[in-house]
Amino acid sequence: MSPLVELQGIAKGFGEGEARVQALSDITLSVAAGEVVGLRGPSGSGKSTLLNLVACILEPDEGVLRLADETVWQGRWAKADLRALRRRAIGFIFQFHNLLPFLDATDNVALAMTLNDVPLAKARDRARALLDYLQIGKRAGAMPAKLSGGEAQRVAIARALANQPHIILADEPTAALDSERAQVVMDLLRRVAREQAAAVLVVTHDDKIFSRFDRLVSLRDGRIEGEMRPG
Amino acid sequence: MNLALRDIRHNLGRFLLTCLGLGLLLGVALAMVGIYGGVVEEALSLARGLRADLWVVEGGSRGPFAEASRIPGDVREAVARLPGVTPAGSLTFQTVEARHAGGPGGNEPPSEELVRERAGEAGRQRIGAVLRLQVVGYEPDRPGGPPGILQGRGIGRGRLEMVLDRSAGVPLGAMVEMANIRYRVVGFSTRTVSTGGDPLAWITLRDSQDLQFRLNPPAARRAQQGGGGALPQDTVNAVIARISPHADPAAVAAEIRRWKHFAALTAAEQEQVLTRSVVDRARKQLGLFTTVLLLVSAVIVALIIYTLTMDKMREIATLKLIGAPDATIVALVMQQAMLLGAVSFAGGAALLLAVKDNFPRRVVLGPEEVAGFGLLVFVICLVASLLGVRYALRVEPAQALGG
Predict the structure, then answer these.
(1) Order of strands across the sheet with A62-67?
(2) Within an 8 Å CB–CB cutoff, is residue A102 touching chain B?
(3) Which of A77, A80, B194, B401 has the fewest CB neighbours in a 10 Å radius?
(4) In chain B, whose CA is at the least distance from the CA of A173?
(5) Option in B6, B321, B325 nearest A92 (CB)
(6) Which of A94, A100, A143 is closest, CB to CB, to B401?
(7) Which residue in A has a C-alpha nearest to residue B312's C-alpha?
């Protein structure tokens, strides 16, 4: 399968002169459709910087970043273009679900679609279907404050899937969950990757879920230290 | 999906409490605008009520309201003979401390028992109560009388009768005592007050000249009675004239200005004197208070919106990360500022309109004033929300990531 996320020789540093810190050097990595790749490493290894680069929040100093067959940054991408790319092609899952507290579960999911110009009624229908697919349909009208951690994270996954993205980026999605719920979330991500042919890149410290990745990439001091296939 | 409304609905209690505070502040600011309107209307009510096209006053003065003016009473005849002048009338104005001297039908001064007995009459001045009145002396059947009679009748040719503004609170038929002379209230005029807000009382010119004489210091009175006084008793404060529609008031005024010792003002000039001189200080004071209150409102709106935006920092970062355009973020902040302003303004204005008649000063608010103030609140909210918008636009999407 062709890679949906492709990084070639990516480097990123912060600061100037003596104070410059090289966060990433010579990163070459790809994630294919249907693949779930884990990214692990100690604090300061460059995981967050790498995730921000793939999320098109940071611009690399060197190298080529290709997302869903589009080469990003080269050719001067405007902020609005990058946001449009994120809306269209990338789904995000956060450590603490980041649901909007003033919208119920359905509207949290529907919002992502309305940002992509889907009419509200249609977006709500699709949101309910997605919540059913993730087996949380009975909590569709609940506000985030009334959802358990696992339920909220499943709603967040539904929001990430709302626009049928090619790429799903997850930042410590199981960090706030117990072991059982963490396994459920990982199973969902694997299912989504397979059924929707999405590339899933997960930053994690959680060794309980390492076995659920197709590949596990280790970072240290801004470089790829190694790669393993847990399966 | 309107995010601003949904966020407000989620925190409705906090939003309404904020609106209540801001609404009271805006209500006070709007009251200042209304009080200024009332001051102007009261200041102009007498001049407009007399329907004079021309004011003839003492030379070098700006009329009876802004400065002292005394002219001989026979000037009225000279003015009346000018081409273009239809009728002319002499007027006196004096502010008097009068006394409610007996209920309807009572000619005798009230006894202490009567004062006590009637002291409880609701909504009316008590017998013996001191009234501050602006007394207008005029010649019946000539210009200068009350603009309209609401109840009772006007003054005929009879003496010691009075037409009084209803706001004085004295019942029809009651006696009002001024300088030891009692006048019977025979009618109520349509609402007309002095530039200071005192109720107006109309009596005949002769009665008013007697009153002026009695109110003079005793030494001046003795000298005047002995023929050596500087002031003849037939003096008036102004002569007003109505001008034929075919004549030009400015031309008639120019003619009078050529006379020695007299000045003439057209109706427009008189109103200008009243609004520029008489109520100028009130305008500045009320304007200053209104400006300060609006500035305080703007600062409060800015701080509230800034705080609300800061509270939503993570949500805004998440919205940016999932691809929401800046317009969505800006709309979220600005719509909340507008709703805050609109609800507060509506609440403040409704409260003020409900209680304005109980204010100690007259509050005059027309649809234009309310709409203009609303527009000002809209602009204030728009400007005040810019601080929150600036903050929201500076939130980085990366802030949504990580713990």
Answers:
(1) A21-32, A3-14, A62-67, A70-72
(2) yes
(3) A80
(4) B402
(5) B321
(6) A94
(7) A100
Chain B residues touching A101 at Cβ < 8 A: 10, 315
Pairing of strands A70-72, A62-67: antiparallel
Q: Which CATH class is domain A33-48+83-228?
A: alpha beta
The per-residue b/e assignment along B194-211, b for 16 or more CB within 10 angstroms, e otherwise, is bbebbbbbbbbbebbbbb
DSSP state string for A121-156: HHHHHHHHHHHHHTT-GGGTT--GGGS-HHHHHHHH
User: Is residue A224 classed as helix, strand or coil in its secondary structure?
Assistant: strand
Asked whether the beta carbons of residue A102 and residue B314 sit closer than 8 angstroms, the reply is no
The CA–CA distances, whole Å, from B403 to A48, A94, A206, B227, B314 equal: 11, 9, 14, 101, 11
Instruction: Show Cβ contacts of residue A37 under 8 Å, excluding neighbours closer than 6 positions.
Output: A29, A31, A199, A200, A201, A202, A213, A214, A215, A216, A217
CA distance B332 to chain A (A): 12
Rounded to whole angstroms, the Cα distance separating A197 from A34 reads 4
Over pLDDT 90: what percentage of chain B? 16
Could B322 and A103 be called an inter-chain contact, meaning their C-beta atoms sit closer than 8 Å?
Answer: no
Please name the residue of chain A whose CA is at the shortest distance from the CA of residue B397: A57
ipTM metric: 0.85
The mean of the pLDDT values for chain A is 87
- Calculate how close chain A gets to B301, using CA atoms only, in Å: 22
Structural domain spans, chain A: 33-48+83-228
3-state helix, strand, coil in chain A (%, to 5): 40, 30, 35
Query: What pLDDT digit, counting tens, does each position of B142-153 carry?
Result: 888 888 888 888
B9 touching chain A per CB within 8 A: yes
Contact check, Cβ <8 Å, A52/B398: yes
Q: For chain B, give every domain's residue range.
A: 3-42+280-400, 70-236
CA distance B309 to B265: 59
In DSSP notation, B192-218 reads -B-TTSPBEEEEEHHHHHHHHHHHS-H
CA A162 to chain B, closest CA, distance in angstroms equals 11
How many angstroms separate the CA of residue B387 from the nearest CA in chain A? Answer: 22
**CA pair distance B38, B237, nearest whole angstrom:** 26
| Nearest beta carbon to residue B401 from set A80, A84, A171 | A171
Residue B324 at interface with chain A, using a CB cutoff of 8 Å: yes
Residues with Cβ within 8 Å of A68's Cβ and at least 6 positions away in sequence, in order, are: A4, A89, A166, A167
Q: Give the pLDDT confidence of B231-242 residue by residue, as tens digits.
A: 556 788 989 889
Cα–Cα distance between B389 and B391 in angstroms, integer?
5
How far apart (Å, rounded) are the C-alpha atoms in residues B201 and B192?
A: 9
Tokens 């800034």 identify what position?
B306
Say yes or no to pLDDT of B229 above 70. Answer: no
